[in-house]
Amino acid sequence: MSTPVEQLLIPEVATPHLPEGYTILALETSCDETAAALVRDGRTLVANVVASQLDTHRRYGGVVPEVASRQHILSLTPVLEETLARLPHGWADVHAVAATYGPGLSGALLTGLNAAKAIAWQRGVPFIGVNHLEGHIYANWINPDSDAALPAEPCFPLLALVISGGHTLLVLMRGHGEYQVLGQTRDDAVGEAFDKVARILGLGYPGGPAIQQAAAKVQTSTALPRSWLRDTYDFSFSGLKTAVLHKVQEVQKQQQRLDARPRRGRRSGEVGDVEPAPPAPEQLPEQYVAQMAHAFQESVVDVLVAKAVDAAHRYGAHEILLAGGVAANTRLRSELERRARVSVRYPPIWLCTDNAAMIAAAAYYRFDAGRQPDWSLDVRPNLPLR
Ligand code: KG4
Ligand code: ZN
Fold first, then answer.
1. Minimal-distance CA residue to ligand 1 atom 19
2. By Cβ atoms counted within 10 A, which residue in 7, 87, 188, 357 is the most buried?
3. Other CB atoms within 10 Å distance of the CB of residue 52
């Protein structure tokens, strides 16, 4: 009888007893950041290196999966070297290795997962696979500065609003690693909506920070509709995005009509009178763009905050936390703090967007709970949070 290939290739590494305050090396390559980090005792940040591919993808207006995978392969070694340089004894100080195995782009995930498994196998240390969304949540308990006091322990049950470029989830956590998804988006993720609306307004990629910056230029704007989806904690953002698109198209048509007015001394329809093309989004008036960005952001923030506050109250959550790239939005943070009836927490801005420190932090709690995956773990591009 033949032996399955996996059994031939996958080594038997006994789970060692890890020393007190052990250090985890983590890799994160689920999308367009090649990241490595070292975290001690699950909370203290030792090193955090992120090689962003933003400049590569910006010219395409979004992430190109194949380009992302290739770039991860190129960046992994230098990023790892820079990370390891922070440890006095290098590899000898690494007690476990973790990597994101989903959700994300499959080719991109593969690069980090395979690298992490290879390192763990070669070093004879445990390998831990982590859910990217779980990582975003665990960014909230990382101490970014070893001289500062540790952030308070999580106060369960808590409500987590996980908002990124690919996900929008309202999650109830009753303990470490225990997730009950109360609601999620039915169409666009909230970060995706920010990115698409930014493109409509000619603000470039990534859209979230650009919209926030444009919105800050005005105090008020005409309200856009709110997508409440009554009696559910689900969300929908694509209608709002379409509302922005229609309004912008109206303005572009008006601009086009103005440009088409017959010039002095010429009559409309005269030979040589060419119909002007609609103006590019980049040619929209700055004040108008700022007002649309403001109105869009207000609409999104209003719905996110209202649902989070309501769910926290209904489920008796002791705190609300923000996680994911959109958690970097300062308007969302302040509005949630103003309306929430329990305490609110969010990671520092640089730990909101993709990084590997959050993966190391989540790995620590997984390992502690004995949830160590086997070596045949494969990438899961649509991995749910549970
Ligand atoms: O978590 P993340 O880095 O990657 C994913 O896991 O998707 O999130 C990226 C998303 C992008 O859509 C980006 O536009 C959004 O986070 N984002 C923001 C802000 N900073 C980043 N959205 C709103 N306001 C921000 N300040
Ligand atoms: Zn992310």
1. 208
2. 357
3. 15
